[in-house]
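[job 4471] stage=fold_predict status=RUNNING
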Amino acid sequence: MDADFFSGIIPPIAIPIDSDEHVDEKALRQHVDFVISGGVSGILAFGSNGEFYMQDEDEQRQILAIIMDQTAGRVPVYMGIGAIRTKKCIALANMGLEMGAKAVSVLQPMFLKPTEDELYTHFSSIADSLSGSPMLLYNNPGRTGYGLSQNLVERLCHEKDNIIGMKDSSGDITQTEEFIRRNRDIGFRVMCGKDTMIYAGLCVGTVGAVCCTANFLPELVCSIYDNFKAGKLGESLEAQFKLNPIRLQMDKSSFPVATKDYGNLLGRNLGVPYLPNKPSPDGQMTALRAELVKAEYIKEGI
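[job 4471] inference complete, writing structure tokens
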């Protein structure tokens, strides 16, 4: 199966909402255009920073329809799935594909502590339901409390031809490297899920990164990838170093509100997070702003 489309910088797109927590269609359309004009290679709908866990199926259908329409085939759109129940994941995956998503990306179930056999059944059942359409694994131990093992990933991608790649948000470069090494015989494609590790991931063979910071600094984030691919390693590393303090400051906010906070500080209309999350408090907002000032994205006092 051709998997070359899965590469580059992909933002887990933030979903602007109004004060009643309804999607702001105009702002979402503008945001899609903004990240595409910034050079991204695709858009992930319903990633962690897209607050998928706050949206019901009807809301996701509405949001995906807007994203698909506004993207208009300019870049691939991926359907992120984070449901716990296998049957619901299958329903969401097929909904996304029917609406035009290029592939689905499936997070390991939250809250549960599944055995290896249970996880295999979960992911393989979803893959089998997709009639050969491409599927990606999403390893995020920080949010689910456990990771996908090397053995499980190797078994899944070798037995299921349509499991073509994964996003690894473990933050462990050895783990990322091993996902690549153990599965390179079949061209399995791995993306880094940590914005501070884009350059390091590319050095060990990742095909790109899924980055929340590409929601508000797409050109900077894409320059890490683009310079690396062009052989301009020094420029790539410098761009990574410029991004890191901005990204690291986000960890002092409640997850995942800093993505919208940074966007709003930069003049993007990303709205507020879903309750119970709230925008960062004044002190943290000042710290976020200070990083943008240091990086010369906004001027002091603005």
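[job 4471] summary: Strands lie at 8-10, 43-45, 77-81, 103-107, 135-139, 163-168, 189-192, 208-210.
[job 4471] exit 0
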